Amino acid sequence: MDMDMTLLVTGAGNGIGRAILMHFAGKGWRTIGLDTDSEALAELRDALPRERALLLTCNVGREGEVARAFERIAEWLGDAPLDCLVNNAGIADPYCGPLEDLDLASWQEWIDASLTAAFLVTRAALPHLRRAKSASVANISSTRAIMSEPETFAYAAAKGGLDALTHSMAVTLGPAIRVNAIRPGWIETGPWQKSGARSHPDHRAKDRDQHPAGRIGKPEDIAEAVDYLHHASFVTGQHLNIDGGMTVKMIYED
């Protein structure tokens, strides 16, 4: 059990972020979660020991909100370090419609939710990360950083930018802080939503068969990857595809 370790996850209320936070909480870590979904955070508060978890409502794409959240985080941490930061926040739906109809404000929302948020939160977290003996940052990117579906321009650009930010941070912040990216593929997040939005989809055989691993991904797969990267002391600046092999399989239309 890692009772003296602390994790911070953005987008912690639902889906992948929720699974990451609960994975590390289960290992005895202290956890900090940021999210815009106050209802989801309230559920997590009820599920975690109050003295071991700090859950704050925050839009991490907005500088002022991040600054206010870190005032509270600094108070809660005291002199203790932040050992692992997971920049997971983002807009889950990648589809933005035809390029000619995509307005600048909508484009900026996708960029801010993922890429700008990772910059703002990492910058604010640096003093706390630097106190750790071996700190790590995991940026949750996407396989869409390297391959696209139609009409996902802003999402793909945000995740591609996150990949570039990852290797730039790794070069600059090392050796004290290691920075890696995880590129999830198709991850079924339904079971990891707040209670009012939870679902357990029954996927088709053809959906599972797209993956050489034989199944669709689970948020737990991403949590395990974050855990691995935190402890992999010789791994930094890397981009790890967690996609069941989907990006290496040639798929032809029937």
From TrEMBL:
Belongs to the short-chain dehydrogenases/reductases (SDR) family. Residues 190-216 are annotated as: Disordered. Residues 5-189 form the Ketoreductase domain. Keywords: NAD, Oxidoreductase. This is SDR family oxidoreductase. The keyword NAD applies. Residues 199-216 have a biased composition (Basic and acidic residues). Pfam families: adh_short_C2 (PF13561). It comes from Qipengyuania aurantiaca. The keyword NAD applies.
